[in-house]
Every structure is written in C-alpha cells, then in structure tokens.
Amino acid sequence: MFMFRRKERRRYGRSEFDGVPLAMLLPGTEATVIRVEGGRGLVGRLCELGFVEGAKVRMLVSSGSGPILVEVKNSRIGLGRGAAMRVYVREEGWQ
Amino acid sequence: MAIKVAVIGNPNVGKSVIFNNLTGGRAHVGNWPGKTVEKKTGGCTYKGVDIEVIDLPGTYSLTARSVDELVARTFIVEEKPDVVVDIVDASNLERNLYLTTQLMELEANIVIALNKCDLADEVGYEIDFEELSTLLAIPVVPTVATTKKGMDELKDAIIEAAKRQRKMIKMSYGRELDDLISKVEKAILKDEKLSSKYPSRWLAIKVLENDEEVLKKVEGSSHRDEILEMSKAREILGEEPEVVLAERRYNFISKILPKVLKGEKAMTLSDLLDKALLNRALGIPVFLALWWALFRFTFDVSGPLSDLIGMSFSRLGEIVRGAIAHEQLASFIADGVIGGLGSVLVFLPPIFFLFIGLSLLEDSGYLARAAFVVDRVMYKLGLHGKSFIPMLIGFGCNIPGVMAARTVDKEEDRILTILVNPLMSCSARLPVYILIGGAVLGAYAAAGTYSMYILGIVLAVLMALLFRRVIPYFKGKPSPFVLELPMYSRPTLRATLTHMWERGSVFLKKAGTIIFLGIIVVWVLSAYPWEAVHVGEKTIIEGSYLGMLGHALEPIFRPLGFNWMGAVALFFGFIAKEIVVGSFGVIFGLGAEAGTQEIQTTLREQKIFTPVTGLAFMAFTLIYIPCVATVGIIYRETNSWKWTIFTVVYEIVLAYIVSLAIVGIGGLLGYA
After folding, report:
1. What pTM was estimated for this model as a whole?
2. Which CATH class is domain B175-262?
3. Which are the contacts of B158, defined by CB distance < 8 A and separation ≥ 6?
4. Vertex B428, ends B427 and B430: CA angle to 5°?
5. Which CATH class is domain B3-163?
6. Mutate which: B372, B375, B377, B407, vs A, most A CBs within 10 A
7. Residue range B67-114, pLDDT digits in tens
8. Phi-psi region of A93 (alpha: psi -120 to 50; beta: other; left: phi over 0)
9. Interchain CB distance below 8 Å, A52 and B246
10. d(C-alpha B290, C-alpha B308), whole Å
11. Which ipTM did the prediction report?
C-alpha cells in the first residue's frame, strides 16, 4: 500500500485528510482528484485513465452500492465500489 | 521493400475497422508467440508500395502491467516498425493522447489517425488538426473509419512518414524530473549494448517508473549499478514516480488541448441513456430483456438453417455411401468424414447469429453497460463484472463463451471465468434434456429441463467461490472493476459483419479441426472391429470397441443407475452433447436419424432409466467434460494443459458427485 502525499497540499495548509472518497459523491456533483491510493497496479491503471491530481471528475451514476460511473478527461469510466473508495477528491466550491 | 506498419489505439476507437480498411479485410489471424493475445496481420499495395500491417492490441497505456500492453510495446521496441499508426478518438481527445505521449517516449515514427471525426462534430467539438500536428510534430490525418473517409490520405501519410525520419520533440516532465531522467539516461548511454538497442530516454523513464521488464534488461547491463544508483534519486520525488509521470503526461496534453480543441460537449444522448440503462431499478430488467431478445434472435433465426445443413449432409452421406463400392471406405467417408463435417457445421448458424447479436450490442456500446450493471452481483459471487458476458454467451455455446473471457483483464479472473464457463448449459444440451425428460419425467419434463439451467448457474457460482478459496492461484478478491463505457453509437452493418466474421472464423478454423478429428476417432471406435459390428445388414454397437468400452465403464456408472448404453452415449456426447440423443438411436439399432419419440418409447420399454436416474443422467450430461471443441478452445485460451486437464477432471468428478447425490436423495425420498 502506498500513500501519495502532495507537497502542494502542505503549501495550501491542508491536512492530508481533506478529501472524500470518490464513491461518496452524489450524482451530478463535480470534484477534483487529489490523490489515488491502493496497490501499484490499481493506482497505475487509474492514473492512465486520467485520475491524476487536479483532474476534474463528474459523478454520473451512483446508487449507494455497486459500481459508479464518472466522467474524467471526457470519457466515462465505470468503477467498482472498491476502486472508487481509493480515489480521493475535493468537491467543487469547497474551500 | 515493404513498409512495416503497426496499428495501435485505445479500446473502442475503431481500430479493427481501420485495420480492415487498410488491408481490405484479408487478415491472417494467429497468436503472438507464447501469448493468448491475438495477432492480426495483413497487407496492401498502395501506389506501388507494399504495406504490411500489424494490428497491436487495444490498450490505454504501454506499461508492463498487462500482456496486451507488453505485447504492443515489445513489438514497437524490438521489431521497430517503419511507421506506427496511432488511432485517436477525436471525440475523446484528451484521454486518447495519453497513449500518444507514450508512443512519443518510445520514439516511434507515429502517424495519428484522428478517427470518429463525425462523432466529434456531432457532440460539438472543433478540432484544429493542423495545429495538433504542429504541436506534436506528428502527421495527423482526420478519418471516419466506418465510411472509409480519409483512408487514402492515411496511406499517403504512412508512405510519406516511412521515407523520412521524424523530427522528435522531447516532452518535458518538469525540471526536477527532466534532470533526473537525463542523469539516468547518461548512465544508460555508457552501456552501448543497451542504448543501441532501445531508446535511451525511454529506458531512463521506465527505470524511474520501476518497470519490471525494463529493470530486467538493466539487470544484465554492464553499467547496472550505476544506472540503478542514479535511479535511486527517485526518492527525491517523495512519491511513486509512475504516478508523477502519468500526471506530467496529462499536463503536457492539457497544455496542448486548448490550442487545438474548441467547443463544448453538450448534454448528449449518451448521458440520458446512461441515466436510464444504468439505473439501479431499471438496469437489470432492461439487461434481462435484451439478453432474452438476443437468444430468441439467435436460435429462431439459426434453427432452420442448422436443420438445413444437417439434412443436406445426411443426404450427401447417403449419396456417397451408394456411390462407393468398398464398404469400409464408404462408411468412413459417409459416417466419418461427411457425418463429422455435418455435425460441426450445424453449429455454425447459431454461433454466427449469436456473434451478430453480440457485435450489435458491443458496437452500440451496450455490452460494457451490461458488465457495469451486473458487477454488483458478480463481485459478491467472487467473479468479475466482465465475467458475466462470457457466461451469458456460454448459454448459447461454450466455445465463444470461453473466447469472450478475453475481455476479462486480470489473468487469474480470466482463467477462473474460463473454468466455470462449461457449466453454463449450452444449446447443445437441450435436446438431451428434452429426450430424457420427455421419456421418464412425465408431467415434470419441462421443470426438469429448467432445473438443469439453474443447476448449471448454481454450480458455476459455487465452483467459482470454491476455487477462489481453495486454489492458491485464485486467492483474493476479483481485481477492482475498472471499465471505460464508450459513447453509444449506431452500429454499421459492415463493422458488425466484420466483427462477427473475425470471431466466428476462429471457431470455424480451430475448433473445426479439433471436433473433426474427435469425430473421426469416435467413428473408428464405433465401427471396428468391422466384422463384430457389421453383422449382415445390422449394426451392433455392443460389439465395437466403443461397446467394449461401455461395458468396461459400466461398473463405474452402476451406482448412478446407468448401464453400458448410458456410458456409451455419454462417451459419444464428448464430441458434441446433442450426439447423446443420436447415439441412443444407434445403440437401439434405430439409426442416428431416429426421431425423438421413437427413442423415447424404446427408453421407456427397455426401462433404461427411472425418473430419478433419468434426472441424474441429465445432470451428468450438463456437468461432465465439455465437448471436445470446448476442451480444444480451453487449451487454446489458457495456453496450458494443466488448466485444460483440470477442467475436464473437476467436471467429471463434479458430475459424478451431483448425479450420485440426485440418486441418493431420490432413494431417501422413496423414489427408486
């Protein structure tokens, strides 16, 4: 397990727990990716699909359990709950 | 001299259509050496230049994580194609350019085919492809593969690109990283053997990314310690370099993007459709309805065609038998060769129509949604969301079912999906249920048939759970579900047919030869010793090697209540399970063409089965070894005798246990 801390975050004076898991977003909300956790394989796959720091995501379908559908880098990615819990995001408008 | 062109792109960009356009549809399909990844090659001559086209697997990236990616990148690095055509989806530019950045790192001679330009227009994008070409220093050709638009221009660009060495631009990853990369690169350049073979900057980047394959190459280098020492500097970054590099590649893309891409994507039909089709309450019913429609389509349309093929071949067999004087030769050609071919070819219509239906679902973008919808359930069952489609196809025929497991990305999940696939009750088993159920289950015949389908599903789930627990190879949870859902699109007839042919022809070639050989072997076993089998006009199977085998096997089947006839029928069923029906016909001396009713009457008269042993026989037919063609395809897809033999053995054991349980429980309940 790796955890990726960003220097930037320290610069903004935030704690490392300021994000929420992507899985928690409500449908229709937009957010910005702050970090991805997990094994190397999963992190790598999510990165190449566009889940990198600063990427904008928009939740399209989510129903409390089961996989979610998000838009990232203009494509739609279905993510299982487990994977969606590993992507930490900051909701838009949250300062 | 021929130009060697590799075609690469993300999944769902229309790569196979472009490949077909370039090669005129004449492709040689095989496997990459030692891999289960399909390799397609083709060629064409354009303006007097021979072009050899190699289709690389669809991938998002070029890491060493998956076989597909490794195959693609090894080809580019080792075989050094003259030109690499990178197919980029114009309606999904940002994500697609990620692969392009990696091809740039590989210093490939790239030509970008900017495909789906029509779709990009439709959703409201305006792309300045000339600007894109300038910024990347890569020729860009706008195309619409489905209407063949831009194909000649693409070929022109390929020939043009092959003539000259492309001016490479170096992507910057930020000053810190650039410094680090050049330090490692310098160390690599000292080892001439390494740096003359591979692009040195690419090696440096991969060393920093901790890429297993590249690290292996570096291990053997004379300057190993120096290179690795330099790469230790990655600790400076304070985080996983792979993640940082991915981020920087995307940074590079987002700097270019505003200069080439104008317009905003409006709310599309895809958004609306996804709201409905992926809805928690609606998703599953819609999926079930579509699935049911697919099966009706497949079997209703293909049924008459299969009958026609079956009839034609038995007619042909009769004609040949009459025309050849030599008795054994006539039997060999009529029963062995023609009968064998016929029994293979009757599978063609259902398989091809199933593939048409599936291609329609896939090309329209729905199939990925189906995997999404069922992932919730599948995950709990220890399988992957993507395993569901192979299982579904298995209800039609296990062969395409096993082949469809290719879409499951993690190797362990894929093998597991293949192992349980034969438990899906394929269409070939239905005639057996109808025969035996109708003969001995009376009013419960239909219920008995349905129960077999459910039994198959339940066993597949139980086995998947069991294998996950017990076999170390499968330990752990299914890999996380990550799947891109492509935009919905209108499938075109040409693309659908191409798709169908690609999959279907594999069955035709590979499975065809295996089934055919199997049939010849069984024919020999059932026809010899010639004098013992052919007494006057009559054929006595009991005297054949197969009959002897049946008698030898009888003690094993006695606890289940099957006699030697059942054993022989099951043995025949190994060729194709519906042959179980015909073989009862042959055993009873009624001939292979005997009607179901005739056989049922004899089954009842001779009291071959009681209701309980009949049900046990149906269950045994469902579970025991998949047909010879499925075994062949399992071997091909797993590339391992170990898994193939394992599947055969576990299914025989499971069939025996379940049948014994049915007989035992039936006995306890007072049924004989």
Report:
1. 0.80
2. mainly alpha
3. B3, B5, B51, B83, B85, B111
4. 70
5. alpha beta
6. B372
7. 788 889 999 999 999 999 999 999 889 999 999 999 999 999 999 999
8. left
9. yes
10. 28
11. 0.82
